[in-house]
Amino acid sequence: MIGRTQKTGFTLLEMLIAVTLVVLIVSMVYGTYRATLQTVQPAREKGVLTRQACTLFTGMARQISGLYPFAAPSAAAVRQTENRMIQPAGPACLIGDSRQQQGKILSLLTTTGIDAGDGQTGLLRVEYRFDAAAGVLSYRQQRWLPTEEPTPDGGKDRPLAHHIKSIQLEFYDGKTWLDCWHNTEVPAAVRIQVDFQGESSVSLRREILVPVPCWHPKETHG
User: Which residues contact 171 (CB under 8 A, 6 or more apart)?
Assistant: First the structure.
């Protein structure tokens, strides 16, 4: 009796089916991974931008809330008064203008540092500068003293936030919102709006309204 030879290998058709199944599985896994990556990366970048916004708003709100309600007294005025209380005269307590979107956009006198642990106390002169090309908002903070010479401490630009496309400041005088402020009196509130642009196409807009506690409405006499 002649026996049949048992096949132990794969036919060409079976191999093609197996390869096709492997390709389909790999394509599905890669598609899922790519879709997940495309979702996770923008979410991660948006989280980074959100943290930048929180850092920026927390620091600026602290300093605006601690705004010194008078102009800085000049050295000459300090010498003349000999410790008597006077109406100070000198640099305005707050100067703000973000319309140019470049350079110094805010300058103020404040009793509060950029954060609780910066170690600086007393009256501080703070400047905020925006570099539109780099997308960086920096600040310069130093202790203010009534002298003719600049104070030796501080004076260095420190980055506060990155990836900024634009920043807009508005100042409320009690009746109207203004796009710039140069006054010896403090505004009632400051509104800050920032547009962030991530490295990819992720964008984020955040806004904060900061009331100024030392503001008092002008008295009108009829």
Answer: 94, 96, 177, 178, 179, 180, 181, 187, 189, 190, 191
**Buried/exposed code over 85-95 (b: 16+ C-beta within 10 A; e: otherwise):** eeebebbbbbb
CA-wise closest residue to 137 among 199, 43, 55, 44: 55
pLDDT at position 22 is 75
Residue 179 belongs to what H/E stretch? none
Six-digit token pair at 24? 């389909």
Closest by CA to 199, choosing from 54, 55, 53, 48, is: 48
Pair of tokens at residue 26: 């790999």
By the 8 A CB rule, do 204 and 50 touch?
yes
The mean per-residue pLDDT over the stretch 35-44 comes to 70
What tens digit of pLDDT does each residue of 60-98 get?
Answer: 999 999 988 875 555 454 444 444 444 444 457 889 998
CA distance 191 to 169: 6
Nearest to 64, CA basis, from 89, 96, 87:
96
Q: What is the pLDDT of residues 103-120, one digit of tens each?
A: 899 999 898 887 655 656
Q: How many CB atoms lie within 10 A of CB 170?
A: 20
Query: Which position has the token pair 């007393």?
Result: 122
Report the predicted TM-score, pTM, of the whole model to 2 decimal places.
0.72
- Overall average pLDDT of the 142-162 stretch: 70
What is the distance of C-alpha 188 from the center of its chain?
21
